[in-house]
Specification:
Layout lengths: L1 H28 L6 H26 L7 H18 L4 H24 L5 H15 L14 E3 L2 E2 L6 H8 L1 E3 L4 E4 H19 L1 H11 L1 H6 L4 H27 L10 H11 L11 H20 L7 H24 L5
Helix pairs in contact: 1-12, 1-13, 2-7, 2-10, 2-11, 2-12, 3-4, 3-5, 3-10, 3-11, 4-5, 4-10, 6-10, 7-8, 8-10, 11-12, 11-13
InterPro entries: ABC_transp_permease
Organism: Notoacmeibacter marinus
Keywords: Cell membrane, Membrane, Transmembrane, Transmembrane helix
């Protein structure tokens, strides 16, 4: 019996203990890691990937997967820059265009998967390549910035709106100093909204039911197709929000800036399976997973670890999280036997 209790404890709290241990290790091993400024930098670094990961979580809930989120975010970054710098539109127009683009991409993904029966990985992978190519065509693969050459005798005269840049660069005042960036606040608001939607509403429970047994959910009258399409639209919109915030932080349309968004976001969403022994996609676990990735990379950077080791370490952490989730849970289901 004591062995079973120990196994249950490891499944439920093992990953949180690992997170706390990692924070303590970096606090002693890296000078300045335990400072408030370092904590805020971690939050800022994970805000965008965390927002994308929350969108992935919604698709995982309905037993799907979205590989196009990184491309959607980069497309939103380029679209917002193109709208303001080249078309000279307002910040409001640029944001609306990006959100509509994200919703439309999610709608197309959902229709391909639900109506045309294309496997989710193949549909979203195809969309990813489509968007990567499409976002390069208007500028012939160049980044977008004020004053860039448009032709032999003209340059781009538009600028990033100060209101738009506020989204990525403003910090809210605290008692000591200006610490909390706007993207962190937006990340926390979206995380709370998705957690409440999935955990506290009938719609969220139906989405979990679809992910557990789609056929059974359909037999009791659940509009499975609508919910699955909605999940991909949520993923597209959250990815576009991440792209908007990235553009607002950079102040330019840098086409290469979203390279790691997909991998980091997927890692955060999958690590969330291991938090509190959930063994299923959930918003709280995704937030913890995003923080785990951010703390890990921040600690390694402050310890001057080579940049080329970071992907290896993230992969190792993901494998450990999946072991916590599936192997230990299967042992519990088998009554603690190997």
């Amino acid at each position: 019996m004591s062995g079973e209790r120990l196994l249950n404890f490891a499944i439920r709290y093992g990953f949180l203990i690992l997170l706390i241990g990692m924070v303590l290790f970096f606090s002693f091993a890296a000078n300045g890691f335990a400072s408030p400024r370092s904590a805020v930098f971690v939050l800022q670094s994970v805000a965008i990937t965390g927002i994308l990961a929350l969108g992935v979580t919604c698709t995982l809930v309905v037993d799907g997967f979205d590989l196009s989120i990184g491309a959607v975010a980069t497309s939103a970054l380029m679209l917002s820059a193109y709208s303001m710098v080249i078309l000279e539109q307002s910040a409001f127009t640029a944001i609306v265009l990006c959100l509509l683009m994200g919703a439309f991409v999610g709608l197309v993904n959902g229709i391909l998967i639900v109506k045309f029966r294309v496997p989710d990985l193949l549909a979203t992978l195809g969309m990813m390549f489509l968007l990567i190519g499409l976002q390069r065509i208007p500028t012939q693969g160049n980044s977008i910035a004020t004053g860039m050459s448009l032709s032999a005798d003209s340059v781009a005269e538009g600028v990033f709106s100060p209101a738009f840049l506020w989204l990525g660069r403003h910090r809210f005042d605290l008692v000591i100093e200006r610490l909390v960036p706007v993207p962190v606040v937006i990340f926390l608001v979206i995380a709370l909204a998705i957690w409440a939607f999935l955990s506290l509403t009938r719609h969220g429970r139906l989405m979990y039911a679809i992910g557990s047994n789609e056929r059974a959910a359909a037999l009791v009258g659940t509009p499975v197709s609508r919910y699955k399409i909605a999940a991909y639209m949520i993923s597209g919109v959250t990815a576009s929000i991440g792209g908007i915030l990235l553009a607002a932080r950079l102040g330019r349309g840098d086409i290469a800036s979203g390279t790691n968004l997909l991998l980091d976001s997927v890692a955060a969403a999958l690590i969330g399976f291991a938090v509190l022994g959930a063994a299923r996609p959930n918003a709280f676990g995704t937030v913890v997973g995003a923080l785990f990735v951010g703390i890990l990379l921040q600690g390694m950077t402050m310890m001057n670890a080579p940049y080329y080791t970071q992907d290896f370490v993230k992969g190792a952490v993901l494998v450990v999280a999946l072991v916590f989730t599936f192997y230990l849970s299967s042992r519990r289901g088998a009554g603690g036997k190997v």
